[in-house]
């Protein structure tokens, strides 16, 4: 099992960061009193236990993810079906990184999240099965319990000031660099090089990937995580 001391250090370090509102663009979100517990996650790759070299915080742009309507018909997909609110940016997950192209994953599938874990984090990651998947695939390699993993994820998430993607979507000549610089301007101390992007084949924004070192301080992303170059044209689907 991967040592979990870095997580304890992270909690201490992050606690020193001044509180800032997480502009998650979760409009009037309220977790439901009753949630259908998802089935146990299906392992989609080998168990890999390697030393942690850093972390990635993956943030999804909901309008692009929900585009087309298929996800909106899923009663368990609160991100898209409108039952608990409408969403802009949401947290996909916190991923430990490894060296030599390997990533810690699937270190354990238990304990499973509790009802309180789901309810306490649905306005951050509004898909119950995704919460459990992220814990089992990624979180189990860096924390002993789902509660511990979600706590670190939530502290990082709530420390951010996210860009106004709706405003940026109306900007003429928008590029990947514009979005990165907007994020860096809203989050002093976060360099542009630490802001990765994932876009679709058509150039539409799908995710922001924030890169951290072992100490949970921002660091330059790897080429794989950085994504499109700054001069690449970027489009943002509104659909809110």
Characterize the biggest β-sheet.
4 strands, antiparallel
Q: What's the CATH class, please? A: Alpha Beta
**Structurally, how many domains make up the residues?**
1
The general outline is: globular
- What is the H level of CATH, i.e. the homologous superfamily? Ribonuclease T2-like
Structural class: alpha+beta
**Low-confidence runs:** 11-24
By CATH, the topology is Ribonuclease Rh, Chain A
Number of helices: 9
N- to C-terminal distance = 42 Å
How do the strands of the widest beta sheet line up side by side?
4-2-6-5
Residues in helices, as a percent range: 25-40%
**Strand fraction:** 5-15%
Radius of gyration: 17 Å
What is the level-2 CATH architecture name? Alpha-Beta Complex
Describe it for me?
The protein has nine helices and six strands. The chain has 240 residues and is an alpha+beta fold. It has one domain (5-27, 47-166, 178-225): Alpha-Beta Complex (Ribonuclease Rh, Chain A). β5 (195-199) and β6 form a beta hairpin.
Question: What can be said about this structure in brief?
Answer:
The chain is an alpha+beta fold.
Question: How are the secondary structure elements laid out?
Answer:
Elements: H1 5-14, E1 26-27, E2 54-61, H2 62-66, H3 78-81, E3 86-87, E4 89-97, H4 115-121, H5 128-137, H6 146-158, H7 165-169, H8 176-186, E5 195-199, E6 205-213, H9 223-226
Antiparallel strand pairs: 1-3, 2-4, 2-6, 5-6
């Amino acid at each position: 099992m991967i040592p979990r001391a870095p997580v304890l250090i992270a909690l201490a370090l992050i606690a020193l960061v001044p509180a800032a509102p997480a502009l998650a663009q979760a409009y009037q979100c309220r977790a439901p009193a009753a949630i259908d517990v998802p089935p146990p996650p299906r392992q989609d790759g080998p168990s890999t236990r390697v030393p942690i070299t850093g972390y990635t915080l993956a943030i999804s742009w909901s309008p692009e993810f929900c585009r087309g309507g298929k996800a909106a018909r899923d009663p368990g997909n609160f991100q898209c079906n409108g039952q608990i609110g409408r969403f802009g940016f949401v947290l996909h997950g916190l991923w430990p990184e490894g060296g030599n192209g390997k990533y810690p994953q699937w270190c354990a599938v238990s304990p499973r999240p509790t009802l309180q874990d789901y309810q306490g984090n649905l306005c951050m990651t509004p898909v119950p099965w995704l919460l459990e998947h992220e814990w089992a695939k990624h979180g189990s390699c860096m924390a002993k319990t789902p509660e511990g993993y979600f706590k670190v994820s939530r502290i990082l998430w709530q420390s951010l000031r996210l860009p106004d993607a709706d405003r940026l979507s109306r900007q003429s000549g928008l590029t990947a660099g514009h979005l990165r610089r907007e994020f860096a301007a809203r989050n002093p101390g976060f360099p542009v090089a630490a802001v990765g992007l994932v876009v679709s084949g058509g150039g539409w924004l799908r995710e922001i990937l924030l890169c951290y070192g072992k100490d949970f301080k921002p660091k330059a992303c790897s080429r794989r995580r950085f994504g499109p170059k700054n001069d690449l044209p970027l489009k943002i689907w509104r659909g809110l």
